[in-house]
Design a protein that fits this description.
Radius of gyration: 21 Å
Order of helices and strands: HEEEHHEEEHEEEEEEEHEEEHEEE
CATH architecture of the largest domain: Alpha-Beta Complex
Number of domains: 2
CATH class of the largest domain: Alpha Beta
CATH topology of the largest domain: Fumarylacetoacetate hydrolase, domain 2
Shape: globular
Number of strands: 19
Helix content: 10-25%
Number of helices: 6
């Protein structure tokens, strides 16, 4: 038994995705909460108990961005100690500790400076979207494969010789669209083709500019979930191609959370099981292993366009099974209930209202 524990500790310490030996640390998540009108960042243990971090730590950090920026230098060990104590004692009997049910859950990051989303990052999702009029793709092109004439994007994405994939594609989504776990996605007035996209979200941990994919893990703080709610109804004309503002940034179109899992507790973001249910019916099921460009390549691509900052979010694309790709299409309706799950990261739940 001792030999097995030693082997497990060594493997965890050597993993490129782990900076805390799993055998030594109490797993925890991090979130933003409200209690009696006061907002604070909290340590979530076993998805049940929340430690009020600033109350237990001299008033700091003031928000999630400050926590992320100071995590490696000052806060990691303190958070680990508080998580271990909460796990050992349980409940909300100790100071600065609550049950999850006592608190209002807010988006884990209230105001990321930049929120990026990745378009069509799963081959099968590309296939199902090829016939959607407002989306489509390169005519006659196999999803995921480079269209004729594809070249490198100098200074941004240099194609390797014989790379069989198309280049990454990202768009900005407005942070003003963010809502929390448990909040409603509101159907915009007059818009009838509202769709879901269940996505893993990368949370940036430190300033990242021109980062390579091999170094990208060092710039990631952790992972959460985004439902990239999408308006498939188009803008009424074909001017300038897709209108990403209408398609992606209506109010409430970015449910985010419920919590952030620090990267040391995610064994491999390139192999996470995915499930999305609508009214308890499974609509999406897959794995991040099927991504065209993995999370590290996405950090590389984005950071070669703009500097990513602590708390910025990259939603990494959705697997097949969205409503607009079905025959006949299924669009969100008043009263629907959505649940987006990434194994080990959590479940993001939101209903739909008018």
């Amino acid at each position: 038994m001792r030999r097995l524990v030693a082997i497990a500790m060594l493997a965890a310490a050597c993993s490129p995705f782990s900076t805390v030996a799993a055998a030594e640390a109490t797993p925890f998540k991090l979130g933003t909460f409200e209690k009696d009108g006061r907002r604070f960042v909290g340590i979530v243990v076993r998805d049940a108990v929340v430690v009020d971090l600033p109350a237990a730590n001299g008033g700091r950090p003031s928000d999630m961005k400050e926590l992320i920026a100071q995590y490696d230098q000052r806060l990691r060990q303190r958070i680990a100690e508080l998580a271990a104590s909460a796990a050992a004692e349980g409940g909300s009997s100790r100071a600065h500790t609550f049950t999850l049910q006592e608190l209002k859950v807010l988006p884990p990051i209230m105001y990321p400076m930049t929120m990026l989303n990745v378009a069509v990052n799963y081959v099968e999702h590309g296939r199902e979207m090829a016939s959607v009029p407002s989306v489509g793709g390169p005519a006659g092109n196999e999803p995921g494969r480079p269209p004729p004439g594809t070249q490198s994007a100098p200074g941004i994405w240099e194609r390797r010789e014989n790379d069989p994939r198309w280049n990454p594609y990202m768009f900005l989504k407005s942070p003003s669209a963010i809502v929390a776990d448990g909040e409603s996605v509101r159907l915009p007035v007059g818009r009838t083709q509202i769709d879901w996209e269940c996505e893993l979200a990368v949370v940036i941990g430190k300033p990242a500019s021109r980062v390579s994919s091999t170094d990208a893990a060092g710039y990631i703080f952790g992972y959460t979930i985004e439902n990239d709610v999408s308006d498939r109804g188009g803008r009424g004309d074909s001017r300038s191609g897709s209108d990403w503002l209408i398609a992606k940034s209506h109010d409430t179109f970015a449910p985010l959370g419920p919590f952030i899992v620090p990267k040391e507790f995610v064994a491999d973001p390139r192999n996470i099981a995915i499930r999305f249910t609508l009214n308890d019916r499974v609509m999406q099921e897959g794995s991040t292993a099927a991504m065209i460009h993995d999370v590290f390549e996405q950090v590389q691509y984005a950071s070669n366009v703009l500097t990513l900052r602590p708390g910025d979010v990259i939603a990494t694309g959705t697997p097949p099974g969205v409503g607009s790709g079905r025959k006949p299409p299924i669009f969100l309706q008043d009263g629907d209930k959505m649940a987006c799950t990434y194994q080990g990261v959590g479940t993001l739940r939101n209903d739909v209202s008018r």
